[in-house]
Each structure stands twice: as structure tokens, then as C-alpha cells.
Amino acid sequence: MTVNVPVFNRGRVRTNIKLAEAEIAKRKIDREILYQQLVNQYEKLGYEIANEKVNVDALERALAATEKRFEASTEEYDSGALNVQDYLNLRNELFKIKAEYYTSIITLRFEQEVLGYMLE
After folding, report:
1. 30-39 long-range CB contacts below 8 Å, 24 or more apart?
2. Residue 94 counted as domain residue
3. Which domain range does residue 64 map to?
4. Residue 8 within a domain
5. In this model, does residue 102 exceed pLDDT 60?
């Protein structure tokens, strides 16, 4: 019966320990990078929500003004003071602003929901 004693066993163990320590350090760095990415996404989303709120407010005011103009132009059209082309252009502008307004509201609510999920 023979017994094999590895001569270089101690060096291999040290190497494996150093590799494990390097892997732990790498994982800590990866975790810190991921944390910073999440913080950046959170901040970016906060800025996007603030911008979208301003956009919704502006579109709401524009929509109110356009609706008033459209009501006035409807009366002008009914009385014959406004031609069909101008009336249809104003109606299309009203529809466009309404679409932008509702799209902006939906975007704002979506971003707020995403922020809510990030905070959970």
C-alpha cells in the first residue's frame, strides 16, 4: 500500500482562497453597480414624472383654450361667417390636442405605477 502526499497542496489551497476572495470582491462591486443603476433609474423616473406633470398641465390649458375657440368657431360656422376648411382645421386641432392630453395622462399614470413598483 502506498500513500501519495501532494507536495504542492498548500500552494493550491492558497490559490483557491485568493480566487474565492477575488470572486467575493467582484460580487460586491457588481452589487454596488446594480445599486447605482437602480438609484439612477429611480431618479430618472422622478424627473420624467415631474416633466410629464408639467406637460399635462400645459396640455390641459391648451385644450381648454382650443375648446373655447372651437365653440366660438362653431357659432361662426353656423352663422356662415366661417368657411368649412377653417372649421375642419380647428376641429382637427382640437382632436389632436385631446389625443396628446390623454396620451400624456396615460404616460404619467404609467410612470407613477412603475415608480410604485420600484418602491415596493
Report:
1. 38/118
2. yes
3. 36-119
4. no
5. yes
Give me the residue label for grid cell 399635462: 56
Residue 76 in domain: yes
**Cα distance between residue 100 and residue 104, in whole Å:** 6
Residue with cell 498548500: 10
Residue 24 within any structural domain of the chain: no
Residue 39 grid cell: 438609484
Count of Cβ atoms closer than 10 Å to residue 56 Cβ: 19
pLDDT in tens, 25-73: 999 999 999 999 999 999 999 999 999 999 999 999 999 999 999 999 9
Longest dimension (CA), the chain: 117
* pTM of the shown model: 0.72
Grid cell at residue 108: 404619467
How many domains are there within the chain? 1
Instruction: Quote the CA–CA distance of 120 and 10 in Å, as a whole number.
Output: 48
What letter would DSSP give residue 5?
-
Q: Report yes or no: 70 and 94 within 8 Å, Cβ to Cβ.
A: yes
For residues 113 and 93, what is the distance between their CA atoms, to the nearest angstrom? 30
